[in-house]
Amino acid sequence: YGYRASEVIGRHVSLLVPPERPDEMPRILSRIARGQRVQHYDTVRLAKDGARLQVSFSIWPVTDAAGQVTNAASIARDMTDRRRADAAMARAVAQLERQNRELARSNAELDSFASIASHDLAQPLQVVAGYLELLQTQYDGVLDERGRRWVAAAVANMERMRVLVRDILHFARIGSAGGAAGAADLGQLCHEAVDALSAAIAERDAVVTIGALPTVSGDSTQLRQVFQNLIANAIKFVAPGVRPEVSVGAEATEDGWRLWVLDNGVGVEPGMREHVFEMFTRAPPTEAGGTGLGLAICWKLVARHGGTVWIENNPAGSGARFCFTLPRMESGP
């Protein structure tokens, strides 16, 4: 409390009690006189310099041989820093709760935006695409070579815009709409993803090998999308003249499963391996196209299932291994 011994010995202990608490010490001493203990009593005490300290007291009576209370002994713990830390923690928790409420409201607004955008963006694009197709089919003979090139370029860019809008809406909906969790047979889902990519696989003469994959708890639609995006990239991003070879596998870990999609493509530079999971980031730059959202969607879908995604070198040589983790299948009751 900042006093020297000579300043307090012989003075009443109420010296340490703030003036706004005049009845506190008499009540405590009254209990001690009756032989009662006071345990962990939280209060405020006054230091010599006027500072108010948060303290926690334990006080008990001291008796003589006849059992009469003669004195009181106490232990006081300075709780000021702890109380400040508790108050700071309470403020941080309150702020986090406010942020969570704001995030929930933002997610609801995002879900509403996705629904509106699905109609207000996709429908006009569909109309424009329809008119461009009419120009191509019904007025091909009227247009000269330059006009046909212009229409073809417009059709190609319109298709890119439709794919981009679709992927943006898909990415937006992931965060705001939870899927139906259940038993997800990853082997079956991976085969379904390969079936959906059959045209691209045939066009590139690609070879896709699927190893033994586990069943996990998750949203089958979302996990199928993860495989489809990763395999599609593996087929797409290969050097000219190289036949795409893709293998999918899994191994058990202490916490769940580690899965991978291994390719013989152009690979990803180490400095870009974190950035490729960001929206609209494409690496390496190739003529293969794409919206730059495929890996961002994978990252978000895996994160929703409690996993992580990363990239490793292909241990066999060129290419990359896209790895992700998933928790084990939840046991029944």
Biggest pleated sheet: 5 strands, mixed
Q: End-to-end span in angstroms? A: 58 Å
Number of β-strand runs: 10
Strand order of the largest sheet: 5-7-8-10-9
The percentage helix is 40-55%
User: What are the segments in which pLDDT stays under 50 over at least 5 consecutive residues?
Assistant: none
Your description of this structure?
The protein has 333 residues and is an alpha+beta fold. The mean pLDDT is 83. The two termini are 58 Å apart. It is elongated. It is built from nine helices and ten strands.
Provide a compact summary of the structure.
The chain has 333 residues and is an alpha+beta fold. The chain has nine helices and ten strands. It has helices at 5-8, 24-33, 80-120, 122-138, 145-176, 186-196, 198-204, 220-236, 294-304, and strands spanning 38-46, 52-63, 69-78, 182-185, 207-210, 215-218, 245-252, 256-263, 309-313, 320-327.
